[in-house]
Amino acid sequence: VQLQASGGGSVQSGGSLRLSCGASGGTFSSGVMSWFRQSPGREREFVAALRWGTRATYYADSVKGRFTISGDKDKRTVYLQMNKLKPEDTAVYYCAARTVFAVNYYAEYQYSYWGQGTLVTVSS
Known about the structure:
By secondary structure, the chain is mostly beta strands. The protein is about 0% helix and about 50% strand. The strands form 2 sheets. Strands 2, 4, 5, 6, 9, 10 and 11 form a 7-stranded mixed sheet that branches. Strands 1-3-8-7 form a 4-stranded antiparallel sheet, with no helix packed on it. The chain starts with a strand and ends with a strand.
């Protein structure tokens, strides 16, 4: 299984970006695809998750109301629409996938498959 993330860049505070993550290989119909991020000097943290089977979505409190995760099952791609970006959103964003949903989907150790990361920089 390979995950390919794209869409990072530099924006000013209040701006928007959309990240994409495409999966090749594997079967994710019962699984979950998520986004994590890591800022310099900080541990990687959960951002958002999409459960394919039910289309349920989950968000970290810090991004609720600003970020939206969605997916196209046919394209095996998950998206992260990021609006009202803040300087504290600056980080390398990683997509991750599991073939089976886990209740602790927010824990990075649950994920076997990771994309390469894409940098998002938000300036004030």
